[in-house]
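Long-time lurker. I teach an intro course on protein structure, and each term I like to show students one example going from raw sequence to a predicted 3D structure in token notation. This year I'd like something fresh instead of my usual example. Would anyone be willing to generate the tokens for the chain below so I can use it in lecture? Attribution to the forum is fine with me.
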Amino acid sequence: MLTTQPVAPRPTKYKEYLKTLAENSTIGFIITHKETGQFMGQCSIKMAEPVKNRDGSFGISMLPEFWGKGYGTEATWFTVDHAFKALGVQRISLDVLEGNEAAIKLYKKIGFKEEGRKRRANWVDGHWEDALSMGVLDDEWAEMYWKRHD
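-- Reply from a regular --
Happy to contribute to a lecture. Here you go:
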């Protein structure tokens, strides 16, 4: 998810931000720890206009203490798979900043391909970063799914 909002949650603002995301999403999931029930983040699919194109836009936001532990991979796989199977999308798109190397690696691992690059899209920590557009098509996803489940 490409956002200019702070990544570190702030109790009231973050709750309002999540509420806005949920209200504008076709489907959204709250990510919680299986054993403790602790809130970990959220992910969503929003249908792009016009809906006839069946293009879902994916977004995910995780609390920093859960980064790098596989939770984002599991949530992303679940959400994207659900969108293809239950919502009937024919493609899923996303935007990610080039500095988010872990997310880019994850997206590529599960089948997303870079489709475009907006150069110098975001000023962060004293330098410019590009924004990448990525996508995966339903037939590409089906192929990845069967490879994973054979």
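Some talking points for your students: Residues 11 and 52 are 37 Å apart (CA to CA). DSSP finds four helices and six strands in the chain.
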